[in-house]
Amino acid sequence: METTHKDPKRWLALIAISLGVFMSLIDTTVVNVALPSIQKSLNASYSDLQWVISAYTIVFAVLLLIWAKLGDLYGRKLMFIISLIIFTIGSGLDAASTTIGWLHIFRAIQAVGGSGMMSLSFAIIGTSFDDKERGVALGILSSIIGLSTASGPLLGGWLTDAFSWQSIFTVNLPLGVITLIMAILFVPNVQQHRAIGGVDYLGMILSAGTIFALVFGLIQKEMHASWGWTNFNVAGFLILAAVLLALFIWRQLTAKNPMMPLSIFQSKSFIGAVLVAFFLGAGLYGFFAYLSTFMQNYAGYSAWETGLRQVTISGWSLILGPIAGILTNRFRHGYMLAFSALFIGGGLIIMSLLVTKTATFNELWPAFIIIGIGSGTINPPMTTAAMSSVEPRHMGMASGMISTFMQVGLSFGVVFQGLRLADGYQAGLKTHMSDLAGAPAAVVTKLHHVLVEVGPFSGNAVAHSKQVTATPFAEKVQDIVRVAFDQGFIQILRMDAIFLIIGGIIAIVLIKTGGKSSTK
């Protein structure tokens, strides 16, 4: 693999890269808890608020592979610095937004930069450290990724409550400047194996189009749960994604200087690593959004309290990430990934057994810890497996592929989790609304319709509204809504556990890197 001499500034470079990745990833979740404040300030509709998140998610996913290729061609340090500057400017523009439309545009600009930092990070670290230190460095960076995913509600809740919604973006300005200075001073500019040849512009366009159509189609389904998969607004984009993917593969097979060398897929270990990344995104990172909803909307915790309790999951990344990185030099990566994935899956199953209408963190914390141990150890072997499965000049693309598959998996998971939640919630309401003995039939019918209409995210707010609490059956309605939500949430947990178990099985079967008998 590509290595550099032991630059004494390499650990400072790791700090710079970690800061950039932390900012880019936390901005996918930190905005969630600020949405009510944004809605008031900018007079936004529910659909508008969804696009504050989706504008970032789509652009972030679409550009990951393009940034990886640009880094291979023109230098990863240069591209990282450019992406950092774009991200920082975009953050400032976000904070200055005076209308929801401008906020959508500026979030997309911010995502352009965030995507670059994420895509280039692993390859920069992979080429800045030698074999013995690489696992530790990647473990530390993976810890930051795990921490950023779960700490968004904590940081976002504190900033919004203490200052304003704009502060979740302005905090990136000083951090961005510090990271920029550190990147310029400390990130090495040594790239021994740089890609050669011209830029495959058609390949880039087809790559971006494929990911855009796929993610946008999934987001359309997420935003409109009532639309079937055959609805043109959903199926049309998914079919377009399949067509563009076929054209992209054709282009890569025929181009003189393809954007993505398809030879990297000759490695079973690489295929295994990107598939594990997909199922990790689908089964774990998508789960956090619904966990936060459960804790805030139903268990009664504030955004700050929710984030604080989720540290029992994310905090393990800081402790176990570097340890897992060290172990990647000693054990087969497939076994390590299977252990972590099955640990997460086991924790999700345990949580599904602990969820009741009165469950709080006091009952759920053992499952949180088990999930945290698994999530804290899974990223280092996954990234190391991908990067050690390809030739040195393809490390940037390998890093981009891991990030892309994880983001697509996240979009896939959120859609199916939302469907499972809605199905369980509606089935629970249908089963238990008949328990409202003594309530007029017309009132029960109307209330049932309203609860279905507002959905599982807002059902508890309706159950605790003034109109319902003034009735003699208010407590019963609140119990029914909580049980209905729990029914859907339990289905999510079980489905996510299946995703992680599938990922673990794939890791054992396909990933042979690491350990004494390492093969690609």
Work out the strand percent.
under 5%
Helical stretch count?
A: 20
Rg, Cα atoms, Å:
23 Å
Structural category: mainly alpha
The stretches of 5 or more residues where confidence is low (pLDDT under 50) are none
CATH fold-level label of one domain: Growth Hormone, Chain: A
CATH superfamily of one domain: MFS general substrate transporter like domains
Distance between the ends = 13 Å
Tell me about the biggest sheet?
Answer: none
Level-1 CATH class name of one domain = Mainly Alpha
CATH A-level architecture of one domain: Up-down Bundle
Characterization of this structure:
The chain has 520 residues and is an all-alpha fold. The longest helix has 38 residues. Keywords: Cell membrane, Membrane, Transmembrane, Transmembrane helix, Transport. It is a multi-pass membrane protein.
